[in-house]
Amino acid sequence: MVLFLEPGEKHKSMASVERLLRQMAQAGGDRGSLLIAFGGGIVGDVGGFLAAIFMRGIPYIQVPTTLLAQVDSSVGGKTGVNLSEGKNLVGSFCQPRAVFADIGVLGTLPERELRAGLMESIKAGIIRDRALVRFMDEHAADVLGRDRKALEKVIAASIRMKAGVVARDERENGPRMILNLGHTVGHALEQATGYKTLLHGEAVGWGMVATLFLALRRGTISPAQFERLEGLIYLYGPLPPLKLKAAKVVAATGGDKKNLGGVRRFVLPIGIGDAGVVEDVTAEELEGAVKYMLARAAGKQA
Question: Which domains does the chain have, with CATH numbers?
Fold first, then answer.
C-alpha cells in the first residue's frame, strides 16, 4: 500500500498522522508491517512517527530524497510533528532499520532545496568538523554545481558527524543538543512566519547568523571566525529576506523544546569545530542577536 503526505510544514501535523494511521489500519496493517518513508525530511519525520506508534511500533526504513534529509533528518531517530505552539513538540525517538541515501536522486532537486540542505552541512562543520568547513569554503562551486565527488564528501562527512554524536547521546540528554546550533532561532522564525516563507534549512541559516553574532559578543568565536562563518552561510545562499519584529521572534523561542524549567538553553560555537550549551543567555542578548540577523535579512547579504 502507498500512503501520500502532501508537501509543506502545515501537513506535518497530528491531523495528518491520524489520517495516515487510519489508512494503515483499514489496509490491514499489523505488527509485521514494514513502513518505508520515501521523500524529504517531513515525510521522514512523519513516517518515523507513524512507525513508532502504529501497533505500538513497527519497523521502518528511511529513503531520503532531499539533501537536507540525507545529511540531517534521516539520521538519528528523531520523529514527530508540529503543534501551533511550536515545531516538533510531539514525537518519539525511533531508529530506522536502515537509511538509503542515494545521491542520484538529487539531480532533480530544485536549486533552492539544495542550498537549504547545505545549511545543515555548514552547521555540522561548525560544531564538529573544521575540515568540512574548509572543504565547503574552498569547493563551493563544485558543491553547488552538484559535482558527485564533492557532494559525496559533504554528505558523508555530515552523516558521520551526526551519527557519532547521536551514538553517544541518542535521547538528547546532553551532548546531542549541540546538533541544534541555529535551530532555536530557526524554529522561531518558522513559527513566526507561519511555516510558509522559509524552508527549514533557510531558517537554520538565519538562525546560525543570529547565533554567530551572539557567540561573537560573548567571545566564544573571534571576529575573524565570525566573518568567515557568516560569509560561508551567504556563499551557499542567498537566504530569503525577512520582515519581522524582533520581539515576535524572541517570543517564539520560548516554545523551544530544548528549554527546561523556564531556562532558555542555547547552543553556541566555540571556535570552529566545537560547540557548547549555555543556559544564561539573557532576553536582551537574544534580542540583540535577532535584531542583527533581521537587519542582514532586510538588507544585502555579503
Answer: 9-105 (3.40.50.1970), 110-298 (1.20.1090.10)
Reply yes or no on whether 196 is catalytic: no
SS (H, E, C) 138-189: HCHHHHHCCCHHHHHHHHHHHHHHHHHHHHHCCCCCCHHHHHHCCHHHHHHH
Residues 115, 176, 257, 264: which is the catalytic one? 176
Active site residue 18: no
Residue 56 is among the residues annotated as catalytic for this protein: yes
Catalytic, 139? Answer no
Is there a catalytic annotation at residue 9? Answer: no
Q: In the 8-state DSSP scheme, what is residue 30?
A: -
Distance CA 236, CA 216 (A): 21
Q: Mind listing the pLDDT tens digit of every residue in the chain (302 residues)?
A: 999 999 989 999 999 999 999 999 999 999 999 999 999 999 999 999 999 999 999 999 999 999 999 999 999 999 999 998 888 999 999 999 999 999 999 999 999 999 999 999 999 999 999 999 999 999 999 999 999 999 999 999 999 999 999 999 898 888 899 999 999 999 999 999 998 899 999 999 999 999 999 999 999 999 999 999 999 999 999 999 999 999 999 999 986 555 555 667 899 999 999 999 999 999 999 999 999 999 999 986 65
Per the DSSP assignment, residues forming a β-bridge with 225 are none
Active site residue 31: no
Q: Which of 187, 258, 264, 296 is flagged as catalytic?
A: 187
9, 113, 120, 230: the catalytic one is 120
Assess whether 176 carries a catalytic annotation: yes
Catalytic site residue 162? yes
